[in-house]
Predict the 3D structure of the following.
Amino acid sequence: MNNLKTKLNSLSIKYKIFLYLIGFCGLLLFLLWTFQIVLMDRIYENIRIKQLYSAYDNIAKLIVGGNDYEHIADIAENNDTCVMVVQPNGVLSYSAEISRNCRIHKAPYIDILNIVIETRENKGELKGIYSERNPFTTERPADKRDDSGMPQSMIYCRQVKNGDDVLAYVILDVHLTPVDATVSTIQRQLQFITVIMIVFSAVLASVIARKISLPMEKISRDARQLATGDYETVFDATGYAEINRLSATLTRTAEELGKVEKQRKDFIANVSHDLRTPLTLIGGYAEVMRDIPGENNPENAQMIIDETRRLSTLVNDLLDMSRIQSGAVPMEKVKYNLTQSVQKTVDRLNELLKREGYEITFDADCDVFVTADEARISQCFYNILINRVNYTGEDKKVFVKQRREIGKVKITVTDTGRGVSEKDMPYVWERYYKSDSNHKRSVTGTGLGLSIVRSVIKAHKGEYGAYNTADQGACFWFSLPVD
């Protein structure tokens, strides 16, 4: 069983569709043969029995209602049923002979009385077969004709009662016409239909399977090409709506994978360059201090210290970004005053940059408390702030605003520079992405600051963004939920 299931699962979609359609055709043929040939006889008998029951119900209503017996003839005609109504004392009160071969009308009256007696003894209801060979039996016949070749009849007799009083006995007779000839005709027709359906279904299944499988096979080939690293693969398979949507989705996926691969290569190249530069400087100054007399001085030592710090900053930023994105560093969220925290960062940076002529202003509408990781949020704000300081205009001004909104607080940092070019705007939050714009201030950076901001703000279920203002350069912002 498991081997068969494994083999079926390994079949291509073309052969599976073919087998399903052939199986469906086989099921239809099986049902046709079953109902038209095997069960024809029983279905026919059930229909005739229902006619008996229907005729009895209508006749009983007439008798109980005291209506004229003349309507019984219409009931007998409509149901193709012969009728006799016998009084409890055995007197025949009404008779409707629909067929000239009616058994109960040709039978001796003593047989009729025996049927009434048996009905009374059988709790008021009796159903059986009447024929020349066996005038009456309750057994199901093996053949629909008796010895004389005449059709057998199904006899149904039942009391008509009004409360506990027996008003009459209704005897009904329907012919059980043999259906052998009909079955034989249908069987011959089904043989032709079976052959035609098998051929037609095989052709149709092959066409449909091929039509459906071709675009799937093309997508599969293109997917294998994409798996080799060819991100310029275009999925152009068509056929039906789902395939069209899948092709478009996979094409967009290939494009995005290509962008990610390019960013990965750029990232590795940039990191390699930034790692190599401080290491080269450290090694160079160390060799100079070792080999050249008089070069072992505080200036060279300070240069080594500065480059070591730069290298340490780069490595720490890489580790921070990796840990935050992987969730390895849990956010230690506490409730604190965000306004005071931002103010402290602004004051500290103002103090560091005042000699260079930079001015950072902070405008807060109110004190706002948030539940967040204060160290990480402070790091985010610092990264955005120093980024805008690097790109601000000749006036060296940066504007920080805090505004309380519905359910959140928003921090904006705006510079007075030239803004971010439209081609760079979608990528400023990517890892190690650097704009082509020149810095207004030479500050050591890793290119990972905004990527860290994005990861931290996402971990706090906040929002972030950037846009160019009409007259003040670029505005970078983030928001956090407020309790």
About this structure: The domain at 68-179 is CATH 3.30.450.20 (Beta-Lactamase). The first strand starts at residue 82 and ends at 86.
